[in-house]
Amino acid sequence: MSREQMTAVTQKQGQSATLASRRYKKKSGFVESWNRLKTNPGAMFGLIVLIIMVLLMIYSFLFITKDDVMAINSGNRFKPPSAQHPFGTDSMGRDLFKRTIYGTRYSLTVGFFSVAFGFIVGVFFGTIAGYFGGWVEEIIMRVSDVMASIPGMLLGMVIVAVMGPSFLNLLLAIGISNISGFVRMARASVLSVKGSEFVEAARAIGMSEMRIAFSQVLPNSLSPLIVTATARIATSVLAAAGLSFIGFGVPVPLPEWGALISDGRSYLSLAPHLTLFPGIFIMLVTFACSLLGDGLRDALDPKLKQ
Amino acid sequence: MIDESTTNSEVVLEVEDLVVHYELKNETVKAVNGVSFSLTKGRSIGLVGETGAGKTTTALAIMNLVPKPPGVIKSGTIDVCGYKMLELKPKQLEKIRGKEISMIFQDPMTSLNPVIPVGDQIAESVRLHENVSASQAYDRAVEMLELVGIPGERAGEYPHQFSGGMRQRVLIAIALACNPRILIADEPTTALDVTIQAQVLNMINDLKKKFGTALIMITHDLGVVAKMCDDVAVMYAGRIVEKGTLEDVFNDTKHPYTEGLFNSLPDISKKGTDLKPIPGQIADPTRLPEGCAFAPRCRYATDACREKPPTIHQISPTHFVECTAYDDPGFHIEGWQNHG
């Protein structure tokens, strides 16, 4: 009896309450995390560097053509940095500034998408393994062990060797080598949370197991995963550079950063700027990612309020 | 099972001969050994007993939430509003939990998800069971918060921003958001300090009356039982040893264990007298004796008590006691009032 009454009351109050509750709603979450992130100078530095990188990437898409970075000009070789060529020119007389800027599209996308791929696949399976346990966990963890037992670089080389050197294959290769780390991390993190009483409480209000795993347990396990993810962006950028350096990455004349360093290596004493500038860019991106990762970990934890 | 027309005595919960064991590698913990009771609409029953008496396991079994493994429900039937809880598939159980029967857990500090704002946690409970939009569910959540005495504008805050008593009230709001017919409160006030205890208990009482919810109050605090419950079931070593209305059990105590519980309460009018604790420890649930589990601690125990399982005696239409000593019609306990 009172059951119906209550529903009726709720429905009647529906409209007026909607207005009232709008005010209460969602000052939480994103805005608060952002406010906390803002106060962290390291994280802000990292964020600004990454934003500049992204802007440079957009600039390169708009204003630098493939011809600009590929055209050979043999009269212009090994020019040191100057006003006309801020980073100098390489062994074929190409402008290194344009080539480095053009390279952002490879390094940033590899860094971001390979980690995103590894994160989504790895965290999905890791959460299932950790939460449900039993034979499901056995299978997932053994497969992940096998993947982890192959060194990432070697796995990347094998994948590229089988599928042919292309940008997409490079991305996939690094993405796959990222999976097992996330599986382990997510499983460990979920295991430490799944015994909490709020999991039991969620069952008691009739939530399904799958939903508890992903909407209750996973959000509590996320902060170490996010830190790992940002650190992984850095290592993925390095891995992409490494694979390109040994010729397994982006096909040769294209200016991936690793390939640029590989190019410049032969002329290290003659023209050190050829390795210096791409190297600085790699360093900046990896450093920025790590700083941002640390800041995000603190900002995303609602318990760390000042 | 249920006759909808007789709302007054509508049975919302029927537990019959429930046996739950935890089967570990080396031993079997006999947590619940044949518990039966029933609950009608709007009434409240108190499950009283020491730690380890099987109260919480009984409650979890009613929700069919006993962790398996190691938990095994050996036998028994549980009927919640006509649903046989122990025979249902997980999908069907999810529909009943939270909708027909809800539970408040012991520790409000850990029973709320720390990374989700409380309003969203209440709204989640509503959305699971009712076909409403996200904003309608959120409106209900704000309403429920205000009903338990928390300002609606705090709905966007996280659990760590609330005190223990407020968190317990949030848990109550979550449990009652879909207006269940049965509410199980598992020691809801144990983790709270005394002044907050009274507030929370009053609130549970008010909401229970308002919505006509039946209540199972699990506690080891006889004061809480006296305040909250219509009926009392005293549990010992996984069995209900005495069961009756509040008056039956409090004023006409029959079982020696119940007597012992009352004797171990401090009495403010008898300053200077010693408390009389029940001697010994609660029976080891992995090695229960052949006869009455309480016999080793019972000062009335006879050889008959130790040798065969206790017999059930009906004292009045509502009052039952499980004690072999009452086979002798002349037997009576000394009565706790006399000791005071």
Can you tell me about this structure?
The complex is a heterodimer of chains A (306) and B (340). With 306 residues, chain A is mostly helical. Chain A has one domain: MetI-like (MetI-like fold), CATH 1.10.3720.10. Chain A contains 12 helices and no strands. Chain A is elongated and about 75 Å long. Chain B folds into 2 domains: 219 residues, P-loop containing nucleotide triphosphate hydrolases (Rossmann fold); 74 residues, no CATH class. Chain B is built from 11 helices and 12 strands. In chain B, the strands form 2 sheets. An 8-stranded mixed sheet of chain B has the order 6-7-8-3-9-10-12-11, sandwiched between helices. In chain B, helix 3 packs parallel to helix 5. The radius of gyration of chain B is 21 Å and the shape is globular. Classes of the chains: A mainly alpha (306), B alpha/beta (340). The interface between A and B is large, with 40 and 56 residues.
Question: Can you lay out the helices and strands and say which pair or pack?
Answer:
The complex is a heterodimer of chains A (306) and B (340).
Chain A: H1 2-24, H2 30-38, H3 41-63, H4 66-70, H5 96-132, H6 134-149, H7 152-163, H8 167-194, H9 197-204, H10 209-245, H11 257-265, H12 273-300
Helix pairs in contact in A: 2-12, 3-5, 3-12, 5-6, 5-8, 5-10, 5-12, 6-8, 7-8, 8-10, 9-10, 10-11, 10-12, 11-12
Chain B: E1 11-23, E2 28-40, E3 44-48, H1 55-62, E4 71-80, E5 83-84, H2 90-96, E6 101-104, H3 118-129, H4 134-147, H5 164-176, E7 182-186, H6 194-211, E8 214-219, H7 222-228, E9 231-236, E10 239-245, H8 246-251, H9 256-263, H10 303-307, E11 312-316, E12 319-322, H11 336-339
Parallel strand pairs in B: 3-8, 3-9, 6-7, 7-8
Antiparallel strand pairs in B: 1-2, 1-4, 4-5, 9-10, 10-12, 11-12
Quickly list its features.
heterodimer; A: 306 residues; mainly alpha; MetI-like fold; 77% helix; elongated; B: 340 residues; alpha/beta; Rossmann fold; 11 helices; globular; disordered N terminus
